[in-house]
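pasting for the record
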Amino acid sequence: MTASINRIGIVAKHGLLAASEHLARLGAWLRERRIETVYETATAVLAGSPADGSTLSREELPNAVDLIIVLGGDGTLLAMADRIAQTGRDIPILGVNFGSLGFLTEIRIDELFPSLEAVINGTAIYDERLMLAATASLRGKADESRVVLNDVVFTKGALSRMIELSVSVSGRFVTRVKADGLIIASATGSTAYNLAAGGPIVHPSVDALLLTPIAPHTLTHRPVVIPGSALVEVRPEAPDGPEDVFVTYDGQYGYPVQEGDVIRVQKAERVLRLVKAPSRGYFELLREKLKWGER
């Protein structure tokens, strides 16, 4: 059951001037309902620095509110999802699409207030999205953990022609991938970088992980869908010398890894809750975003 909504955080894409008038209307709408508004610092400037709302940084916001409204595109929502994950709190997101695709920010601006009303009244429907938990064991450093929504991606550096990665699943060796990179994606992330790399679309309710090589050297290396209960281990290999390998988390954060390091990825214990669009399901969203059936 969703807890009562008393404080709402508002985050807009950096520099999204088109959101300014909507931010003003949103602030007035919440004020009429006696709901406290907390603006992300840069978003408050876009909203005209309203006197009736407090401001916090993006890092501080998830610890202070009961719901976060995101106005922008999927990148803005991903950044907030990662920050929510780091706090360990169960904060739903209402994503309003100002971007060109919006697989995650699926609510249109004209649907904002009906969707928000449903959240406040306790009648909203939520999508619970599987997240990925990644632990990096880096030589000479303490283990580092991250929780992400879409994917963990291994890519080559600017001067690397190809990288080599040893991949194991649930303790069993699978293969050595020689490629430009490797994507470990959730079902939600299947329509992100995974899709661009030729991976399959997987319905977000499916309990699965995806392994998709990026431009593999061997054409028989194909994307693989594995159970959501699996533990994936990736080890960079450099038989001919150090390779320039980077690991990134949801495209928001990353660092170089080298031979001897290991990154373990599995399903996270918690999920992310997204407010569903009132009039569209997942397949309607796919048809709209991928232009299926259009000539």
